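[#protein-structures] MJ: dropping Major facilitator transporter here for a structure pass
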Amino acid sequence: MQRTWPVFIAAFGATYTFSVGNVTAPRLGPELNAGRGEVALVLAAFAVSFAAGLILAGRLGDRYGRRRLLRIGLLALALTSALAAAAPSLWWLVAARLLQGAASAIVMPQTLAIIQTSGGAPAQARGLAAFTASSGVGTVAGQVVGGLVMGLGLPFAGWRGAVLTSAIPSAVALLGAHRLHVHPPNSTERPDLGGALGVGVSLLALVAGLSLGPATGWTWWTPTLVVLGCLGLYGFWLGQGRRELAGRPVLVAPSSLRLPTLRLGLLMAVLLFAGYGAFSYEYSMLTQVGLGLTPVQSGLALTAFAGTFVVAGLRMPRITARFGDRTMELAAGLLTVGLVLLGLTSWFTQGKGAAIWIGCFQVLGVLLGAAQASQYGPLVGTVMAAVPHRVAGLAGGLFTTAQQASLGLGIATIGGVFGALVPMLGWEHAFAVALGIQVVTTVLFWVLARRLRSGPHGSSTLARGGQHRTETLD
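AK: finished. structure tokens for Major facilitator transporter:
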């Protein structure tokens, strides 16, 4: 654990970079003359680029060495963060966020792979718990620290200063990355660069169409982008199957998804992170625009949520030891209760000022933070345990691809519904309706968690963070 601290800083920085975009979102519109759809596209561009490059980066790490790829990614993330902070216009910022996402994609699968191949089962369990905590802290710290930086009265503060802070964790992790153990390459396959490009363009078209559609009244070209994106992803999947049958290198081997545990785990990741991506975007818009809070106040209002998430993440081995393979089900039930209560609070406090809403959120934030950490931690272990060590980079890539693509899609879809409803219902009512959609995704998560536990491939060792590897690929 002492030698691997740069890995946890790197994981923190990758999620921090995504999250800091949420707190800056309300300021981008006035300063860059951007509508809600264009602002959502700025946020989703990072997630899409992140998602598109993850599996390829995992494969590259397996072939060329994970420490080498990690150092390259950290340097690129620091440089692209500075580029994003200096962006002169909206579309320059979109391009810079795409590059930031690509850099983060190089970093993240290496962190999971290094953790999963360092030490025995107890060390791996501790590493996964620390990874869960550090990446979760990065997600919430982006909004808290970003809000504080935006509130400073310095010449280069504002949203640009907040974005620039994304370079700091990467620089710190880069300074210590030479201490990491060198994992020799364990793959000789040439990476499928064409597949990576195809899935990246398809995801970008899909998310761009969904993000800009509501703002443009669904002009013909936005549905066209959505259709082309879906067709591109379908074509990518068919192409991967043909390449695998022919014995050629693939980005994602369709046969690797024969494991029920892996399939269910990835679908659960989609549901979990689509809801969270939308929630974080909607929270920033509601508190800063709807309720009139400053960025500092908006960030500080997340303190209870963030603190509980961190504590629960660090104590995840004890939590899963106490509740076993029911941990994710219980967490989904708690999250459902918290979302319903927050939705009711939002509905009945519309027009009554920010103080009541923020006060209620502080109480409910404890429940929400504990519940989300208890979903996320065991799920990481489940997905990682389903794939053997020799393709640990692929496992990290698959999970974080589902995570990041879902964050972007959640902003584009549920966040799009929220933005469309605000003029008709008002901020608090629109937020309550969006939370209702997230309740549905959480209930579906609960159903899948129950199926995972009760199915023939379910295993409490998976739910406890992959302390033992009980499955192998066919």
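MJ: nice. Residues 12 and 135 are 5 Å apart (CA to CA).
AK: one more thing. The chain has a mean pLDDT of 80.
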